Amino acid sequence: MSAPATCTVDIEVRYVETDQMGVVHHANYIPWFEIARTRLCGDTGWRYAEIEELGYLLMVTAVQVKYRQGARYGDTLQVTARVDDVWSRGVSYTYEVRREGTLLTTGRSEHVWIDRETRKPTRLPPELESAMERLAGADEPQT
Question: I need a surface site. Which of 78, 114, 126, 128 has the fewest CB within 10 A?
Fold first, then answer.
C-alpha cells in the first residue's frame, strides 16, 4: 500500500466566522473539512455532484473535532483531508488544520453510502471502487 492521497486547501478566515474576540467559532471547522473532502474526491475524477447523478449519496454518520489552538480573523489556514479507511458500505476521512505549519485542529468524519432513491444504506458503488481505493492508498484495487 502506498500513502493515502491528500488534498490541502487554503481558507482565509472571514470576520463572519469569528466570535466577538476574533477567534474562529468552533462550528466553522466542519464546513472547512467538507471543502477539503469534496476537493479530494474531485481529484479522483469523481465530483460529489457526479456521484449523486449515479444515484448515490454519502451520509455523514459521525464527526469528531479536536481543537488545539484557535484561529483568528484574517489568518490563512491550510485544511488537509485524507481518506482514513474504506469499507464495503462507507468511508472515513481525517483532517488537519494548520496555520503556517502549526497544527491547530484535527478531525475525523465517517460516511455511509446511501441509495439516493430508496434512502437506504448500500455498498460502495462499483463505479467508484478503484477511485476510493486509490484515495485510501491501495496500489491496486482489492477484490
Answer: 126
- At 1, the pLDDT band (50, 70, 90 cuts) reads low
Question: Cell triple for residue 69?
Answer: 489552538
Q: Between the CA of residue 108 and those of 9, 22, 31, 55, 87, what are the distances in Å?
A: 17, 25, 13, 25, 16
Q: Please state, rounded to an integer, the average pLDDT across all residues of the chain.
A: 91
CATH assignment of 6-136, among 3.20.110.10, 2.40.50.100, 3.10.129.10, 3.40.50.1000: 3.10.129.10
Which of 124, 32, 47 minimizes the C-alpha distance to 79? 32
Written as one string, the DSSP assignment of 26-61 is: GGGHHHHHHHHHHHHHHHTT--HHHHHHTTEEEEEE
Report pTM: 0.89
78 CB-near residues (< 8 Å, 6+ apart): 8, 9, 10, 11, 97, 98, 99
